[in-house]
Amino acid sequence: MEQETGNIRREMEQWEEQYLSPYASFSGKTRGRQWEEEACDIRPAFQRDRDRILHCKAFRRLKHKTQVFLTPVGDHYRTRLTHTLEVSQIARTVAKALRLNEDLTEAISLGHDLGHAPFGHAGERALDEISVCGFAHYEQSVRVVELLEKQGEGLNLTWEVRDGIRNHRTSGKPGTLEGKIVRLADKIAYINHDIDDAIRGEIIKEREIPKEYRDILGYTTRERLNTLIHDVIFQSLGKDDICMSREVEKAMGDVRAFMFRNVYTNPKAKSQEEKAENLLKWLFTYYKEHTEAMPELYQKLLDRMRETNPADEALDMVVCDYISGMTDQYATDKFKKLYIPYAWSG
Questions:
Q1: Based on the domain organization, do 206 and 285 belong to the same domain?
Q2: Could you say which of 219, 248, 270 is where a domain stops?
Q3: Looking at 226, 245, 270, which one is the last position of a domain?
């Protein structure tokens, strides 16, 4: 039985090399992990990475982190977790159509936002402003999988997955086509689901999206997703790159600019952001002054960071590690406990 199962992973690796595009990333040819470990007898390397991300604590916390709308009333607004799942679905559709590595694509998709702070980009701005090291969610996502998960051991993921996570931002340059797919899928997903949420929240109406963009992309979320995904696939077929047509790419960029003007900076959608930023800055200041109040994991991590970094940088990095891992509600509860008086009882 041991000999039979020992062949399963190798057979799957051989299948990849026979079936996938020559431009795909092959599990059997990964550039390796942070440290050597015995290969799984059943799962190829990228599938194993996908599973590790899916089962980690940071992934589960995404369900209680803001996507765009802070503390929305209603069950159907996106969270950071549902955004991640929508990115994964779009990216896998493209990867499968182009015969690229679906496991690698999914692993990058599921891990790309693990380091996001509570309260979405408002939380990211707050930590970036107050920390001497700055803060960027894509770098923090890598830090989560390399260092913070598994009680400071990290997940020991492959280079390809970590590269895709680090480079999923607009200005990133992923080293694999699978990473390039996720980079585009992230944008396709958030533009369209943010439109859907903004319409649900009565911030914009469908007809307010300029007609010249809708004529190209479509008149509903479904139509726009269909147009964008088809365009990426057909423009990228047979190429060592992931592309879009100029017309569709420009229209998507124009819709994104429309969303920044009318939704992402809209007072109704963003009315609580200043409060959220101040809340995180207060927490940051408190934990810098009271490191003993952080969990033991972070106190040990602080000792490790001080061995290789200036003291002030090490402290700021670890406080960011702790706060960025919080969910919206956990951060709010911590703030209330630390700063809001409560009734005394003997």
A1: no
A2: 270
A3: 270
45 and 80: one domain? Answer: yes
Kindly report each contact of residues 81-90 with a partner whose C-beta sits within 8 Å and lies 24 or more positions away, as own/partner.
Answer: 82/193, 83/113, 83/189, 83/190, 83/193, 84/59, 84/109, 84/110, 84/112, 84/113, 86/189, 86/193, 87/112, 87/182, 87/185, 87/186, 87/189, 88/185, 90/185, 90/188, 90/189, 90/225, 90/229
Asked whether residue 74 falls in the same domain as residue 189, the answer is: yes
pLDDT in tens, the chain (346 residues): 444 555 899 999 999 999 999 999 999 999 999 999 999 999 999 999 999 999 999 999 999 998 887 766 678 889 999 999 999 999 999 999 999 999 999 999 999 999 999 999 999 999 999 999 999 999 999 999 999 999 999 999 999 999 999 999 989 999 999 999 999 999 999 999 999 999 998 999 999 999 999 999 999 999 999 999 999 999 999 999 999 999 999 999 999 999 999 998 887 767 788 999 999 999 999 999 999 999 999 999 999 999 999 999 999 999 999 999 999 999 999 999 999 987 665 5
Residues 255, 137, single domain; the answer is yes
User: Does 192 share its domain with 328?
Assistant: no
Range of the domain at 39: 2-270
Residues 247 and 289 in one domain: no
